[in-house]
Specification:
The structure holds two protein chains of two kinds. Chain A has one domain: Na+/H+ antiporter like fold (Up-down Bundle). Chain A is 82% helix and 0% strand. Chain A has 15 helices and no strands. Chain B has two domains: 51 residues; 90 residues, Regulator of K+ conductance, C-terminal domain (Alpha-Beta Plaits). Chain B is built from three helices and nine strands; from the N terminus they run E-E-E-E-E-H-E-H-E-E-E-H. Chain B has a five-stranded antiparallel sheet with strand order 1-2-3-4-5. In chain B, a hairpin with a 7-residue loop joins strand 4 and strand 5. Classes of the chains: A mainly alpha, B alpha+beta. Chains A and B meet through helix 4, helix 6, helix 7 and helix 13 of A and strand 1, strand 3 and strand 4 of B.
Chain lengths: 390, 160
């Protein structure tokens, strides 16, 4: 009977997510906030608590993170990352300082201590590559001159995550200073090794997973990804980072095939991940955090615009293009939730963390695409008025 | 004219140049191979007023429309040099059977009486290529021969 109940609940859950995803497509926003809302509705204290699927969804959401980061790694080649690092390290640092600070300050003001500050800094820092790539493509801005600047900020953030996530994992596990240092050391060595291997012998890594039969290929890619993620997790380096580094090491053609066969799976498991995050958040705690979330949303919208403006300015883009670059980066999404999910596994995190992160991402995932759409007409209207006044 | 190549991580590559009119024109090649024609705005040169997705056939058609008359004129120009002996340049297309194969495999001289005198790759000219020279897609093969021989040579490079 238990299995029957679990199947019914899973079926209803997936079907419900399908309906939400369709709705998101209709109104032209990312499905991430709707999945979170779905999770909130079904979780503890929600409308309809689901009881029988805990075991499955817990593991599935772990797999979701691994696939999310594996595919993110597949997007980049090692030369993209190294090239991006050379070109836009300054924009990357400006972006980090401007956007991590508000989160950290908010957490400190709320009395969540340095651990909470570290986690919240990550939540407000990282833009959503997924949402932003989609918005740029939908709005026909991929060919714009500011777009390389926007993308290189994303590259820098993703690369920075390969260090940030293991550091945060270590701190959250309260490993102590030396053990934490060891974890960071391992992550740093791994990152360098992966970049070197990927630059020099990318073919060898690809050969491990490559196969002309898509079934064998799929099994091998997932097998290797889960193995690497598991080992990374055992070394306290965070499963996601392991998968991300593996994704970078897999080279061109193989990466493309892997992206093709894994994308639907990623969408499925990542949806479960967002729902599980929502499930673990008590919606009754949300009203209390709304003021802070709103304040953070306003501040980090401005700081993100500043970071994008700076990055575009560096590549010699004009005023309107700088604004476009700024608002393009506003959307936060999957990474913020990955970080928040990581934080939730730690006992040292304040219970207010999950509701705040959820509310913040709900706001930013919707606000980002909306701002990206309206920036050009608004800029036009403003500069028109300025011209009229002159 | 400088064609600027920009890598767009996770998306593909963008190749563009600025026309005499001051507008950016370019092609965005996505990682999956599909292409978009880009045309920058006049008021705001950073943005694109047109991003037009194009199929392989449409790209070829547009390329022919823009480039072909030019190429024909060039060929006619070169053919004036010596009566009866012509020079022609043929690209190795992506789908040519000789991509990745050696020059000797074409048996060009035996089959058509023409000679391959040079191969141009990425603006670098390899004069008098040897039979073991391996063709890559996009190579421009310079061939000398009679008009009839050149026609056959083009067919061989295209279809084997």
């Amino acid at each position: 009977m238990e299995t029957a109940l679990a199947l019914e609940e899973l079926g209803a859950l997936f079907f419900g997510l399908g309906v939400l995803g369709r709705l998101a497509g209709r109104i032209g926003i990312s499905p991430i906030p709707l999945y979170l809302l779905g999770g909130l509705a079904f979780g503890q204290g929600g409308l309809l608590p689901l009881a029988g699927i805990g075991g499955f969804t817990e593991l599935a959401s772990e797999v979701g993170v691994v696939l999310l980061l594996l595919l993110l790694g597949l997007e980049y080649s090692a030369s993209d990352l190294v090239g991006g690092l050379k070109r836009s390290w300054l924009a990357g640092i400006v972006d980090m300082v401007l956007n991590a600070t508000p989160g950290a300050v908010a957490a400190l003001l709320l009395g969540w201590g340095p651990v909470g500050a570290l986690a919240m800094a990550g939540v407000t820092w990282v833009s959503s590559s997924g949402i932003i790539a989609k918005v740029l493509s939908d709005l026909g801005r991929l060919g714009n001159r500011e777009t390389p600047a926007v993308l290189s900020v994303l590259v820098m953030e993703d690369l920075a995550m390969a260090l940030y996530l293991p550091i945060t994992t270590a701190v959250l596990a309260s490993l102590g200073f030396l053990a934490g240092l060891r974890t960071v050391g391992i992550a740093l060595v791994l990152l360098v090794v992966v970049l070197v291997v990927a630059l020099r012998f990318g073919g060898a890594v690809s050969a491990v997973v490559d196969s002309p039969t898509s079934e064998v290929f799929l099994l091998r890619v997932i097998g290797v990804a889960l193995l690497v993620a598991g080992v990374a997790s055992q070394l306290q380096v965070s499963a996601g980072v392991g998968a991300f580094l593996l994704g970078i090491a897999i080279s061109e053609d193989t990466a493309e095939n892997a992206t093709r066969v894994l994308s639907p799976l990623r969408d499925l498991f990542a949806a479960v991940f967002f729902v599980v995050f929502g499930l673990n958040t008590d919606p009754r705690e949300i009203p209390a955090v709304i003021p802070v979330a709103l304040a953070l949303a306003v501040v980090t919208t401005l700081t993100k615009i500043g970071a994008g403006w700076f990055a575009a300015h560096q590549s010699g883009v004009g005023s309107l293009g700088r604004w476009r670059a700024g608002v393009a980066l506003v959307a936060r999404g999957e990474f913020s939730i990955v970080i928040a999910g990581l934080a939730l596994t730690s006992a040292s995190i304040d219970p207010g963390f999950a509701p705040l992160a959820t509310t913040y991402v709900l706001l930013m995932a919707v606000l980002g695409p909306v701002l990206a759409r309206v920036v050009v007409p608004v800029h036009g209207a403003l500069s028109g008025r300025r011209r009229a006044a002159a | 004219m400088d064609v600027e190549l920009t890598r767009l991580p996770g998306i593909g590559t963008k190749q563009e140049f600025v026309t005499g009119d001051g507008r950016r024109v370019g092609v965005l090649t996505h990682r999956d191979g599909h292409r978009e024609l880009l045309l920058a705005g006049r008021e705001d040169p950073d943005s694109c007023v047109a991003t037009l997705p194009m199929t392989e056939a449409e790209c070829n058609a547009l390329g022919t429309l823009l480039g072909a008359p030019n190429l024909v004129a060039k060929l006619q120009d070169q053919q004036r040099e010596v009566e009866g002996v012509n020079t022609a340049q043929f690209p190795i297309a992506e789908r040519s059977p000789y991509v990745g194969r050696a020059l000797g495999d074409t048996a060009m001289r035996t089959r058509t009486g023409t000679s391959i005198v040079a191969v141009v790759r990425d603006h670098v000219v390899s004069p008098s290529p040897r039979p073991d020279f391996v063709f890559a897609a996009g190579d421009l093969v310079v061939i000398v021969g009679t008009g009839e021989g050149l026609k056959q040579a083009a067919e061989i490079l295209e279809a084997g």
